[in-house]
């Protein structure tokens, strides 16, 4: 277990006297614009931490992946052996970490993570367990197409699956959905279970160069992030948006008029929230709760 993360983290506030290495995100206007500190400006929000030791970063990645899986388990994103998350390894960039095949998300610990190479084969350095092959084809193609992305999350959530049947994007129906404005794409095809590289490549192409989330027609949702924390928050945000869209469409079908947020307001809201540091921070309350609820087991 990492000795630095055995207790609940307090990631929200730092003082200017702290070392520069811990002050990531202090110059991010989006992150610093969402909270108010002291009059002198010495209190700043923490964003994504940096690491001088790649081994420590690797352990941090596995701990946060495990917490995300347990969070997904709490949200009901488990569907048999489906669902997977990958994060690019900080030491060997063409390798990445994935969850073991057929292990319930709610039981996963940091030590359960599997390290795979660029061809999806399990290698030394992590848990010696099999992975989901469909997950490899989806994730490897996204990682290949988007070197800016460190983490990819995919699951068959109920509301995501339901809305995906329409093969349509979601509308900006509420303030929270504006977190995703301009960052959503739709894969409006379905080639069956992704057991071939071509299907993974088609999903990566649909995601494009700018989107951070994608609705996979007749399939589910996929999200990306600079951190696994960001990918988790965006996945949850998209699934909630799909739920909202379904509820609103049902009400509108019965004669109620829906109001969609205008593009300029949606863009304004997006500009106020879209930041890798901010979306990382959005997940930290859940991370802390998972650590507390598991009594630190998730970090082992």
From TrEMBL:
Residues 1-14 have a biased composition (Low complexity). Gene3D superfamilies: Class II aldolase/adducin N-terminal domain. Signal peptide: none annotated. Residues 1-36 are annotated as: Disordered. One of its GO terms (molecular function) is actin filament binding. GO terms for cellular component: cytoskeleton. Residues 63-246 form the Class II aldolase/adducin N-terminal domain. InterPro entries: Aldolase-II_Adducin_sf (IPR051017), Aldolase_II/adducin_N (IPR001303), Aldolase_II/adducin_N_sf (IPR036409). PANTHER family: ADDUCIN (PTHR10672), CLASS II ALDOLASE_ADDUCIN DOMAIN PROTEIN (AFU_ORTHOLOGUE AFUA_3G09800) (PTHR10672:SF40). This is Class II aldolase/adducin domain protein. It comes from Penicillium angulare.
